[in-house]
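Tokens as discussed.
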């Protein structure tokens, strides 16, 4: 086993992935400016909904976030070129992780995946060939890498697809309800007429399960590898066109280079790269593999199952939803209003969400317990600055996949005084039995 992990293989897959990856990082960050994403998420709002515990992490003032994203785009290009690779990627990782934790209004799983792949790539020798680093320092140049470098990428991808498969086994997906609603909202014209037909949205639902479950095993098996790649192209390009989810489809496709024989990747992408006449066994990166990547993968296997140890259904409570590859899985709709009461005299104080939030923030917050709690804390602090001690109550109605609305937050709980439980269920998030009765 050790010999297989540390066997030398051609480093072409890792090198070409670095080039694809750096290019996609630049596209993601420059594109965020050009599409108005930076403006709507960081420039327009007075504040952002950071991850809980990171309220101090707020956007730079004025046009600062434009410069922030320009810097990230430039660093992405430097990663692609392999110039001061670890410094460039390290800085990008730090800045992108800041973006990820800074806002939840436009939360997307591929933002989290980018953080993880950046972290992995920091420890891999992706700059040993076809890089400015290797050109400037010939001693750095190398034609091989240990086999485990490809393996960690394959394992990470397998974890993502495995948990994405498991998450789909719930009634809203199996009946096609979610895919029908999604296609109804994201398609138009002649294709819309086809998309909302039962046979089509059920096909998309079960094709999604089959793809997520089988794509990695089929890519690993030589006889089915190319068919799996073709299926991946169809699946991801369809998603790119219909769902408009940025670079993720192309990012997912780029991992295919690790499933093909390294020599084949060399012949396709680096025809002038010398072939290695004799491969050996190396101890390169031994400590990194055992002391970083093994614990890292264990954490990645455990994080997505934590919601099973939290009371309630994660689809309803959202507790344990993030970091779990529960992507494009359900839709939430509903509304939230706040009742603010002066504790000194029980007088109800006027409060309008639109005074503090953009409409995009309101739409995102409306049905998410963590963001509703954070907003209550913001309201508390707002009145505290005026010397008023307040209680904040939320009236929240929510529905999953178009189902009838139910009360999400206990309307009698003062959220300004309530605690957020990081690891277990927050009792002020109401739970229901199968008959729709509140569980006491």
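Sequence:
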């Amino acid at each position: 086993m050790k010999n297989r992990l540390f066997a030398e293989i051609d480093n072409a897959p890792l090198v070409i992935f670095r080039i694809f990856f750096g290019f996609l990082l630049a596209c993601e960050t420059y594109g965020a400016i050009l599409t108005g994403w930076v403006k709507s998420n960081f420039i327009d709002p007075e504040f952002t909904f950071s991850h809980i515990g990171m309220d101090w992490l707020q956007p730079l003032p004025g046009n600062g976030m434009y410069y922030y994203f320009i810097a990230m785009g430039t660093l992405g290009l430097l990663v692609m070129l392999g110039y001061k690779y670890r410094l460039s990627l390290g800085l990008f990782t730090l800045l992108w992780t800041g973006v990820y934790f800074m806002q939840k209004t436009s939360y997307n799983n591929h933002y989290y995946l980018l953080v993880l792949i950046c972290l992995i790539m920091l420890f891999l020798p992706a700059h040993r060939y076809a890089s400015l680093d290797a050109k400037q320092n010939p001693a750095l140049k190398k034609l091989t890498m240990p086999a485990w470098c490809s393996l960690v990428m394959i394992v990470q991808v397998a974890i993502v697809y495995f948990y994405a498969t498991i998450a789909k086994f719930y009634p809203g997906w199996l009946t096609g309800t979610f895919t029908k609603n999604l296609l109804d909202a994201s398609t138009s014209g002649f294709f819309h007429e086809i998309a909302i037909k039962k046979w089509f949205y059920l096909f998309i639902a079960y094709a999604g399960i089959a793809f997520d479950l089988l794509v990695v095993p089929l890519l690993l098996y030589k006889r089915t590898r190319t068919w799996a790649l073709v299926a991946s192209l169809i699946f991801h390009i369809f998603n790119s066109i219909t769902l408009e989810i940025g670079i993720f489809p192309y990012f997912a496709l780029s991992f295919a280079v690790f499933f093909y024989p390294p020599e084949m990747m060399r012949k396709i992408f680096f025809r002038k790269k010398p072939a290695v006449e004799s491969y050996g066994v190396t101890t390169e990166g031994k400590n990194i593999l055992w002391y970083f990547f093994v614990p890292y993968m264990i954490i990645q296997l455990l994080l997505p199952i934590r919601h099973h140890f939290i009371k309630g259904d994660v689809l309803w409570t959202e507790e344990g939803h993030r970091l779990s590859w529960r992507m494009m899985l359900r839709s939430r709709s509903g509304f939230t209003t706040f009742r603010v009461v002066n504790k000194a005299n029980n007088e109800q104080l006027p409060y309008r969400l639109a005074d503090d939030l953009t409409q995009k923030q309101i739409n995102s917050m409306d049905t998410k317990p963590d963001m509703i709690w954070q907003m209550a804390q913001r309201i508390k602090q707002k009145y505290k600055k005026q010397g008023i001690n307040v209680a904040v109550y939320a009236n929240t109605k929510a529905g999953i996949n178009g189902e009838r609305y139910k009360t999400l937050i206990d309307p009698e709980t003062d959220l300004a005084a309530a605690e957020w439980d990081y690891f277990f269920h927050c009792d002020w998030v109401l739970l229901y039995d199968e008959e729709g009765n509140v569980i006491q």
